[in-house]
Amino acid sequence: MTDEFERRHGFPAGVNAVRLADDAGRTAARTLAQVNFVPADLVTFYDNIGEVTWADVGNGYFVDPAADVLLRFTQYGTVGVGADQKDRGLVIGSNGGGLSYVAGTGGTIHRTRTASLDEPELDQVADDLLQFLELLERSLTRFVTNGETGCL
C-alpha cells in the first residue's frame, strides 16, 4: 500500500499497522470487562489486538487502544446509541475525517454523523465487531486496489 505513496502524494506514508496487545492493553481490557455493558467480543479483541492504525487508507481508520477507550469512558462516560439513545456505548475509534465509532451494549457498531459527541446522531454500520472489522478489511482492500475506501 505504501510502496508508491510518497511518489504519488509528495510526503511519506504514516503509520499503517495492526499492533498486538501488550500487558497494559490486556489490563485495560480486563478493566473494561468489568463494565457491565461492554460487549464480550470487544474485550476479547482488546485482549489480543492493541490497536489498528491505518493512517493512509482514505482519511484514515483508527481502532483506539483499550487504555484510551477506558480513559475516555472514565473522563466522559458513555454515548447514547440506538433509536431512542437509551442504550449506552463506548467510543472505540474514529476515521481521519473526525467521525467516531461507538460500540453499543449489544455489540453493534455505530458511526457518528458529525465530529461532535455532544448529543450525537449515529448510524449503525455493523451488527457486531466482527462485521465492523470485516468492513475495515474490505476498505483496506478497496483502497489498495482502486483508491476507494468503501462505506465506513
In short:
With 152 residues, this protein is α+β, with helices and mostly antiparallel strands.
Uncertain segments: none
**Beta-strand content bin:** 25-35%
Query: What is the number of helical segments per DSSP (H or I, 4+ residues)?
Result: 5
Rg, Å, rounded: 16 Å
Oligomeric composition of the shown chains: single chain
Strand-pairing-aware structural class: alpha+beta
Helix content: 25-40%
Average pLDDT across residues? 89
Secondary-structure element pattern, one letter each: HEHHEEHEEEEEH
Distance between the termini: 19 Å
The largest pleated sheet is described as: 8 strands, antiparallel
Overall geometric form: globular
The count of strands amounts to 8
Polypeptide structure, described:
With 152 residues, the chain is α+β, with helices and mostly antiparallel strands. It is 36% helix and 26% strand. It has helices spanning 5-9, 23-33, 40-48, 66-76, 129-146, and strands at 16-20, 49-54, 61-63, 79-81, 87-95, 100-104, 109-112, 122-126. Strands 1, 2, 3, 4, 5, 6, 7 and 8 form an 8-stranded antiparallel sheet that branches. Helix 2 runs antiparallel to helix 3. The longest helix is centred in the C-terminal third of the chain and has 18 residues, at 129-146. The radius of gyration is 16 Å and the shape is globular.
How does the SSE layout of this entry go?
Blueprint: H1 5-9, E1 16-20, H2 23-33, H3 40-48, E2 49-54, E3 61-63, H4 66-76, E4 79-81, E5 87-95, E6 100-104, E7 109-112, E8 122-126, H5 129-146
Antiparallel strand pairs: 1-2, 2-3, 3-5, 4-5, 5-6, 6-7, 7-8
Helix pairs in contact: 2-3
